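Worked example 2:
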Amino acid sequence: MHLYVREAKSRLQGEIPVPSSKYHAHRALILASLAPGTTRIVGRTAARHVRSTIDVLTGLGTDVEPTQDGFLVRGGAYRPNREVLSVGSSGTTLYFMIGLASLADRPVTLTGQKYFQRRPVGPLLDALGELGIDLAAENATPPITVQPKRPGGGTVRIAGTLSQWISGLLIVAPFATGRTVVEVEGELNEQPYVELTVEMMRDFGLEVEVADDWRRFEIAGGQEAHPIEVTLPPDIGSAAFGLAATALHPSDVAFPGLTETSSANLDHPEAHFIDVVAEMGLPLELDERGRVHVRHDGIRLRGVDVDCRPMPDMLPVLAAIGQFAEGETRFRNIGHVRLKESDRVVSMLQLNRMGGDVEVVDGELVVRGIEGERPGVNDREENEDSKRGPG
């Protein structure tokens, strides 16, 4: 399959609505499924990964009703209506639901797309096993069969490589029969995502004690979640692509749903993206209707230094913007970025095939701005593609 992208010939104008945060949606839906009663979630998202979470929850017997402005979730005990549940391509769904599947009243097998066989699930499976969860998985990859056995609790240690490992332990811990202690080893990546998990657990009435350095968590067992009403904030990750387009072209574009021009008052783990693109030179303002608005007749972007430890998902879009910035855009702490749905670092090296200048240097991804003509397929590759024909 080939994807053809045509260069914009005129000023970008109009609106790009920003959907609700998929990160909040995952957590709100899952916690609501555990809370006996009805939880109202205000905010809609059509994200495929969120649909995967909904599919798994309904497979566990949870009633999730879409409404005009969000969802109604009727939570309670998990009584599965299917033996095999697919998480699709959602890593968040997989990592969060392995432990929670033990709360069902019958065995459940979680599976997913084939690429999950390359994603590291073993450390989480080991830690869940230490908590007393009875599970089986060949080669520590899906399919994973979880028996109906409530965890007992205990002290477990987990590498801080991926926040989803930590969140997967935290979210099941209150439902153990005893106290759970989770200790993080090594570097702690993606801390804002862990903070979001803890914050939302507390919103649902679950108690979590957190050390000042976010490397030790204590959770009492035998807790019960309570239904609430929760409003989902805007999804910065979705807004990122529209903001990138306005960074590369003269623009007059509003972003309904996005009402902050800095990360200070944004409740989202990727909020710092707003600060980064502003530092690169993108003019952000609030219009008369309180929406973020980008207006310019052409700007000179600047290369910046980006720490990927807290927001790994933003590397691809920032690398693409960096191709059009003066100087270098450097991405540090990129090891965990390579453990996502794909190796995102290697994926961005493909910009070189479009005339870019991207390389990995001493463990950092370096993107050098292209002078003169914008990046485009060179004549040699164009000729090679014409020889290959459509694929």
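Confidence is low (pLDDT under 50) at residues 373-391. The chain is about 30% helix and 25% strand.
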